[in-house]
């Protein structure tokens, strides 16, 4: 299985990566439809990042993008509403790129697909992520798979991941805590869908 490894050395590189989509592993083609980069993808990726690290650790990167975008807009003679829009888009792309780098391409593609109710795509990508040698990517994959199964009503399948999640997730000590995080994640997933004018639950 081939995995592309990126080194994000500067904010400009992050922005370039944020403008691209796609995923790695055997599920690449299956995930193509669900891996679009945009606000929904960023929100979904943030859900997984929050599970692993809590809060929103990437807000500072987004703020940095706004500052950089302002400088570029002034230098290029762009002003007013166009400059504001460019700054917002730059900030969003920076944040998305950082999320993708932090949770991994496959988990990011998976949770984006999950937000669109594409459970098969989500789980295929999650399973690739779970095999990663990067422990953060692997844990992200476990969570995405568990959330996807719970979202489509397979609670027993979701709970089958708890033992591995407890093993690798330092914030989860027992199945009760894993269950609580899962249920909170399902609520947040539904909120994200509603925020982007999608059905909260999948038919």
Descriptive notes:
Helix 3 (39-53) packs across helix 8 and helix 3 (39-53) runs antiparallel to helix 11 (175-195). The chain has 203 residues and is mainly alpha-helical. The chain has one domain: Serine Threonine Protein Phosphatase 5, Tetratricopeptide repeat (Alpha Horseshoe). Residues 1-37 and 57-75 have low confidence and may be disordered. It has helices spanning 11-18, 28-31, 39-53, 59-75, 80-103, 105-115, 119-130, 135-151, 155-159, 162-168, 175-195.
Q: Roughly how many Å apart are the termini?
A: 33 Å
Looking at the structure, the CATH topology is: Serine Threonine Protein Phosphatase 5, Tetratricopeptide repeat
- State the name of the first-level CATH class: Mainly Alpha
Q: What series of H and E elements makes up the topology?
A: HHHHHHHHHHH
Count of separate structural domains: 1
Q: What is the count of β-strands?
A: 0
- Work out the radius of gyration: 17 Å
Count of alpha and pi helical runs:
11
Summarize the amount of helix as a percent range.
55-70%
- Find the structural class using helix and strand composition: mainly alpha
Mean pLDDT: 76
| Beta-strand content bin | under 5%
Shape: globular
């Amino acid at each position: 299985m081939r995995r592309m490894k990126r080194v994000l050395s500067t904010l400009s590189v992050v922005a370039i990566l944020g403008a691209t989509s796609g995923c790695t592993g055997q599920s690449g083609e299956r995930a193509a439809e669900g891996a679009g980069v945009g606000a929904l993808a960023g929100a979904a990726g943030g859900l997984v990042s929050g599970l692993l690290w809590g809060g929103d650790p990437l807000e500072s990167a987004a703020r940095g993008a706004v500052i950089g975008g302002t400088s570029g807009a002034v230098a290029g003679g762009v002003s007013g509403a166009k400059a504001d829009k460019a700054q917002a888009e730059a900030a969003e792309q920076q944040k998305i790129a950082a999320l993708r780098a932090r949770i991994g391409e496959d988990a990011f593609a998976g949770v984006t697909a999950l937000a669109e109710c594409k459970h098969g795509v989500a789980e295929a990508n999650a399973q690739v992520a779970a095999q990663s040698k990067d422990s953060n990517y692997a844990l992200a994959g476990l969570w995405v798979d568990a959330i996807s199964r719970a979202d489509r009503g397979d609670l027993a399948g979701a709970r089958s991941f708890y033992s591995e999640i407890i093993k690798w997730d330092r914030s989860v000590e027992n199945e009760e805590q894993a269950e609580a995080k899962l249920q909170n994640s399902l609520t947040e997933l539904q909120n994200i869908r509603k925020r982007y004018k999608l059905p909260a639950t999948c038919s």
